[in-house]
Design brief:
By secondary structure, the protein is of the alpha+beta class. The protein folds into 2 domains: 3-53, no CATH class; 58-164, Aldolase class I (TIM Barrel, Alpha-Beta Barrel), CATH 3.20.20.70. The chain is 19% helix and 25% strand. It has helices at residues 3-7, 99-102, 119-128, 145-157; strands at 9-10, 14-16, 22-24, 32-33, 44-47, 50-53, 58-59, 61-66, 80-85, 115-116, 133-136, 161-164. The strands form 4 sheets. The protein has a 4-stranded mixed β-sheet, covered by helices on one side. Strands 1-6-5 form a 3-stranded antiparallel β-sheet. A 3-stranded antiparallel β-sheet has the order 2-3-4, with no helix packed on it. Strand 2 and strand 3 form a beta hairpin. Helix 3 (119-128) crosses helix 4. The radius of gyration is 16 Å and the shape is globular.
Length: 166
Amino acid sequence: MSEKERCMHEAMLYHKLTPEDVRCDLCWHRCRLKPGRRGRCGVRGNIGGTLYTFVFDRVASLTVEPIEKHAFFHFRPGTYALALATVGCNWRCRYCASHALSQMPKGPRGRIIGRRLPPEEIVKTALTHRCHNLVYTYTEPTVFFELMLETARLGSAHGLRNLMVT
């Protein structure tokens, strides 16, 4: 399997409009995509009439931090979280604190960076570092929905709490 194929994962939450065109239903933008085009987020694209996410196992930021750093002051105070993000965002905020990550993949040939880290490895990393929580943050976590969902399922099975900073 090529590196490109490993990075692709069929997306959830989309509809075929024609045999070639798709509509992404992940966010309210409802991007209509012809083959070879990416959505507003830059990390979901139509390849041959199928919508793919290009960040299912591409983590661009991964850190262990106190839960309070993410403005959760009354939820499990004193615990640690494994905070993670991919590139991509469906917004274009001028004041974005994570602009370098969130806006990187814009355009039809935008670069997807990140370390290959499947959901199982993310959960293993959290447990190894004695984290009690997984926080999906820094960019808009909605755009890495498939990664977040699978990681949340696995993490919950190990007692980890899942939080989104959106």
